[in-house]
Amino acid sequence: MNSATSQRIFVWPIRVYYEDTDAGGVVYHSRYLHFLERARTECLRELGFEQDILARQEQVLFAVRRMEIDFLKSAHFNAHLTVNSRILQLRRVSLTFDQDIILTADKTRLLHAQVQIACIDTIQHRPCPIPTSLLQKIHHEF
Q1: What is the arithmetic mean of pLDDT over 98-115?
Q2: 22 is catalytic
Q3: Quick check: 47 and 141 in contact, CB under 8 A?
Q4: Are 45 and 37 in contact (CB under 8 A)?
Q5: Which of 20, 22, 70, 106 is catalytic?
Q6: Which residues contact 98 (CB under 8 A, 6 or more apart)?
Q7: 8 A C-beta contact, residue 86 and residue 142
Q8: Looking at residues 120-125, what average pLDDT do you find?
Q9: Are 99 and 71 contacting, i.e. CB atoms less than 8 angstroms apart?
Q10: What domains are there in the chain, each with its CATH number?
C-alpha cells in the first residue's frame, strides 16, 4: 500500500526552554529530534491513537527506521517554533513523515526532515503491518 503525498499538514507549537539550549542560548542539535518526535506523537494522538494503547491492545510500536535532516538555521532560547508534519508516504509497515521546524514569528524555516517510522511488534521487535484501523484513519484524514 502506497499513498500519494498528503496535502494536509499537522501543526504543533513548541517553545524553546533553557534546558533545550547551550550556554549561548542556541538549541542543541539533538533537541530538534525531540521536537520532531513530539509532533509525530501528537499527530497520531489527534487521529485518536495513543502509542501506549497501541502497544497494549494491538501489540505494536513505532520506531524510527531512517531519518534525513537538513539543519538550516539555529533556534534560540525562548523562541516560539512550529513543527509542520505531513505524511509523505504510507506503506503497509511504515510511514514517512515530511517535517519542517519553522520560527513562528517570521516563518523562517530552521530545519527540514524526512522521517520513516516502522511498525514493529512488541515481542520480537520485528516489522509488522500497521493496524488496519490506523491505516484507514490516516487514509481518511490525510
Answers
A1: 98
A2: yes
A3: yes
A4: no
A5: 22
A6: 5, 85, 86, 87, 88, 112, 113, 114
A7: yes
A8: 96
A9: no
A10: 10-134 (3.10.129.10)
